[in-house]
Design brief:
With about 625 residues, the chain is α+β, with helices and mostly antiparallel strands. Helix content is about 25%, strand content about 25%. It has 14 helices and 29 strands. It starts with a helix and ends in a 9-residue tail after the last strand.
Amino acid sequence: MRKHFLGVSMVVVAAVVAAVTGAGAANAAPAPEPIPNSSPGWLTHGKNLGAASPNARVSARVYLAPEGGLKALQAAATAASSSHHFLTPSQYHAQFDATAATVGAVDKWLAGSGLSVKVDANHRFVDVTGNVRAADKAFGVTIANFSHDGLSVQAPTGAATAPASVAASIIAVSGLDTTASIVEPKTQKPSPPSAGFRNAPVCSHWYGDQNPTTLATPDGTVLPQFDGDTLPYAPCGYTGPQLRNAYEAGAAAGLDGRGVTVAITDAYASPTVEADANRYAADNGDQPFAKGQFTQSLPLAFTQVNSNNSPKQCGASGWYGEETLDVEAVHAMAPAANIRYYAGASCQDRDLLDTFSRINDEGVATIVTNSWGGLGDVVKPALLQAYETAFLQGAVEGISYVFSSGDGGDEAAALGTPQTDYPASDPYVTGVGGTSTAIEPTGITGETGWQTTKYGLASGAWAPTVPFLYGGGGGYSSNIAEPDYQVAAGIHSPNGGRALPDVSMDADPTTGMLVGQTQDFGGTALYDTYRIGGTSLASPLFAGMTALKIQASGHGLGLLNPAIYANPAGFHDVTGAGIDAGNIRVDFVNGVDASNGYTYSVRSFNTANTTLKVGTGWDSETGWGSARAGWLTPAP
């Protein structure tokens, strides 16, 4: 409405000027054009508190389109991923960076409005700083103070605009709306990673090898049957050798990731991650990192680190467990692969986008695992094209991006209606969902989709206490159209949206991975182990396996999904067969030791009431299923 009113007003003014001066309408300056998705999504329910002070500070980032436009870059990424003929980073920049003339025109527009301008070295974006008066002039907006969703922010009252002469070169702007745009790790652990946690030692080494009839409870609690069955105790946590035996059995000799670099992105950087990963590997039958096998790319400084609870800040220590899981899971699946960790300066989108710039410009890694995301896929429309440009640059260079699909199931419990999570729902990444997985010495003996109901003891029986506790993300995007490769594969999307997940791996915390991390036990930093899950586990497991495929192929792969959907034979169809109704969890009440006693629960497998279901072929809970040795067949 704002753009339409402004356009009508300009036409009327032009007509009046023409009538008075005799000038033709053709001489009028073209109307400014809206910048895509620059109007805050919360405006319809936010409260306008009045115009911001003209002298209030503004810091924004203007993202520039690649030379030739996004469609040209999309076509190049698709072609390169099919032919496996990729560009080097320098070749990419020579072909797709915004030109000096474009940058000069954008600089002139913004500086001419009174803003200070700093141009990215590779012309991806332009950072501007200044005051509200200058920003209002530059972007054709009125910046006001608002309250929404418990936050007090500064934001434009409508869409930002750019002069017609440069509008086609602008794909997004962030920062005019000061609402923090943050992402969260997709990890499920019973207590915050910053606080110490240990599993109670009542668990199964392999799936199903202990139950209440073979191992009594430590305090004498009698555990009843569940729907007439004696359920086993949850696994203590699968280790690297167990996971490789499950997923990579039958792979060609010598496939261990050698010569391949796997990139991991998260916010912040654990100071003990390499030492923790080395100790964990040595304690659980694997080799620690060789010298130089694990490296890090860190920002100059970290920001937004003060709180685990504030919606405006990130809680740095809360990301340490995520990084630890990612590193140890990749090393478990690809013991000889190099791992390079790229830390974001904070959990805000622009800082995670910066990690992608470093990955793509270095050109060292060929597979990137990302165990984080937002809630829903309509929360970051302003940055959608900036994300996609990064994924497409990677694809042109032979770099593949994989993301955790989320741990909120269909997100209906959190958002009211089913939604998928972004960035996993982007068509240019592979979204990895979750399974509940039974691993025995013979391999995987049962799998189903990860959707959990929690049961507790009540009057000597198991009774549901949390109908939906957590589950692997999936469903159909309400914001992103179904891509051609899904249409061609016959995937029926009821709303025409991108379908998730693409594939799945073990993610259920009940059947999760054992990890080792230095944690805070009563003010003392100590190393210990615990079982962990979430699609934060599934993504690095899949990335580690894909490193073996890249090793076998002798080159990067770029976009993975077109090949997966054209031939999903390398994936085991997950239909729910061969696994119990759930497992019994035995936990310390205080999460650390038995001093406060034990707590008992049943965590069900795939019984929570969501819209996601397992079935034959692709399904909305596990995609094409979980990877097996067939996925490791070399790509031509």
